[in-house]
Amino acid sequence: MVICNFVKFKYQVTPAEQQCLDEIPNNIYAILINPLYKDYIESFYEWFGYNANLYNFIYKYKYFKIYRGAYSSLNLLSDTMKTMGTNKNYQLTLSNPQVLNFWNYVYDFTHPKYKLTSIYESFLEDGKIKVVPRTV
Q1: How many angstroms separate the CA atoms of 11 and 131, rounded?
Q2: Which of 3, 96, 110, 112 is most enclosed, with most CB atoms within 10 A?
Q3: How far apart are CA 57 and CA 66, in angstroms?
């Protein structure tokens, strides 16, 4: 089961629209953390919105809250998607566990299988990323 917030605005938002963007997911999350609905917390997703490279993707809201401000992870994902669109042989080498962990909770909802597959898993399966140990 997927509960997904698709409420986004394509252009510059008004203060009232910004309030909706903040309150809708926060209110859904507040309901789902109630012990009565805790079984559904892992089913709550949010759409990235009108981002040209992430248009077909949703993310698990609970983990986005943990990685709030994960803009470097998002920018890298967006840039990677853009590059892969023009260069089918592109392979990204990654060592940052924070980026990889966040990508585990990003899903392409336009290619459903039996279950949602994270973008990280898809990249690994397709040989699009190479994970190397982080050096200290």
Answers
A1: 36
A2: 3
A3: 18
